[in-house]
Protein 1
Amino acid sequence: MEKQSLIKVLTAAGVGSRRKMSEAIKLGRVMVNGEAVTDFNHPVDMAKDKISIDGREVSTQSQKLIYIMMNKPVNTVSTVSDELGRRTVLDLLPQKYRQYRLYPVGRLDKDSTGLILLTNDGELANRLTHPRFENEKEYSVSTNVPMKAAEMRRMEKGIMLEDGMTYPAIVKRLKGGDYSITIHEGRKHQVRRMFEAMGYTVKSLKRIRMGNLQLGSLAAGRVRELRQDEVDGLISQYK
Ligand code: URA
């Protein structure tokens, strides 16, 4: 069988995101046939070579690809494990999905709610989180006081945060007084920081859309598998 790079094989095996796998390789946690390998491009033969991370063997046999949307509730971290023992999105997964090595694509703050995608499709996860693909994300935000129209327009044009200017966004007032903001970036706490930079406090933040995926009426803490047209839509958007 043709050899492939270690990073490619690990990402395709659905053990974790490309970023996590790169970190593991860099730190010498990945072994190929019992030897630590720190070269991402180390050639491996999926049929013959034995790969392990932290001593646990990685199955490179193809596993069924699963795509799930969750409405993350508050007080839940969007990581696979948490050193402080807080509840993770994986803790909320129904039993039948626990046999798959699903992991969340992108992050939502502990106190944010809404749409988070969980999958074992490493390649898709990698594409969706890559800045080049400009994955559109829409949030519904409630603020302490109503926003001034001029501030909304400033936010749309781009504002200066400590890590640089934000790209153009779309900001709308929703019925009921909340705001919708659509951004293409995924900087840490970005939406909260944008509102704070304009002098507002974010009371609640919910992701309602990621590209073609709409959260809809999915209840907090619940999951549903994506329909085939949604999976196709995601894949075609990021090809
Ligand atoms: N921006 C934030 O500030 N928090 C989130 O959870 C998502 C986007």
Protein 2
Amino acid sequence: MTVIDVVRGDITLLDVDAVVTAANESLMGGGGVDGAIHRAAGRRLAEAGAAIGPCAPGDAMATPAFDLDPPVRHVIHTVGPVWEGGDFGEAEVLASCYRRVLEVADELAAGTLAIPAIATGIYGFPAAEAARIAVATLRATPTAVGRISLVAFDEETGQLLAAALAS
Ligand code: APR
């Protein structure tokens, strides 16, 4: 049985087996949550990302967590869709991110996982629809992960994720 909850705050401070970053295709870091995770993990994260990238939108790939504090052992990099109005398959690409993240987490035997609100920042995906897609996809995808924490960096995202979980 997988527990899904909403956590407010900075994903780099959470005690989980694996953290998910909202990356770009190069996997070499950027701004937003990707920037925070790369700053916390150190420069080896970008080197490891460059070695396995590029990562296609909707896919997910894992690297070690390097300088992130234990128990975090893995960073799962996923690339969300850039929002272009909703008629270009963005919803399906976002759903694919969540499915692939769980597949990779299961390959890593991660028991606990933290996931940010993928694509809702720089990539502009509407946060309410993204929350609904995240919860629906995670609930529909079989996984051995015991606890999935949906991380909200701001209050509005937290409320949207909680509403999606309550629906
Ligand atoms: N912890 C948790 N969530 C965070 C943090 C953090 N430290 N910093 C930002 N966020 C939240 C944002 O508030 C937003 O809700 O992560 C969510 C995703 O926003 P972005 O980080 O902008 O990611 P995204 O919209 O997917 O854009 C990805 O931005 O940083 C670059 O390299 C990245 O090119 C890629 C693009």
